[in-house]
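Morning, I've got a small favour to ask if you have a moment. I owe you a coffee for this, so here goes:
>
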Amino acid sequence: MKVVVTGASGFAGGVVVRAAVARGWRVHAFGRRAASGIGAGPFGDLVRAGTVPYRSWDVTADAPGDLPEVDAVIHCAGTVTDWGPAREFARVNVAGTARVRRAFPGVRFVHVSTASVYDPFRPTVMAREHDLPARRYANAYGASKARAERAAGADAIVLRPHAVYGPGDPTLLPRVLGAVRGRRLWAVGDGRQRVSLTSVANLAEACLLAASGPVERGVFNIADAEPVVLDDALRWILRERGIDAEPSYLPAGLVTPVAGVMEVAFRLLRRPSPPRLTRYAAGHLAVERTLDISAARELLGYRPSPTSFHGAAAW
């Protein structure tokens, strides 16, 4: 099996590369990071050994020449943040997806999307794939990823993970740890809400199944084996990290307007970095966010492991 992995210098893409090599596949890795800097990345040892050829490609630009002939493309490249100008999300997530699709015509295309395409303004309760489209989004990220799914084409396999975590996690774990103040970890909601999380290992397995299995198109939710209760997950993370703190909760009705004011202020001041609190972050886990993954189980043969934060002290 010969595959291209885009976004290989990022979190999920790097794990997909390693998983594919472990499966015995021939992998061609592309990422935004310069080739000279990939040695310290998640699969730098494979590049140095000549096992994985790596080329720098920012998907906002044309594809490099002499692209390999492959059986499938696993498209992990994208901007993953809840802050930034809409035009940048469009350039990377929408136009970039279309550009990668055009660069590899006629091959299986696995597009890594997100559960953030579901309606952010109401609870996501065991969402099924047909629950799209949402009428509006809390930020440009969710909107751009919904458009990117269309840019991937009707014959693509689209994967929708939620809250991806694991070793090297640049988003979920840092955000949780950043909410610790003294002996309190501040969160929104009441802590009893159920959430579907996705380990990066489970996501990588789903990518490989989608790239090599009998299913050639379709949309699939991807998550760990079962949802977890938010308070349980937060306490587990704190224990693993050795942090002496307790989760404390604020009502979304109080926090969301404050987040909106902070967003307006940051935009007026043209601050490039995000405010500590955004409406997306406030509402993301404030209510139930669970996914029905039965389609992936039945059609892709997806057999995910349970949510686990064992070893999180080293992440």
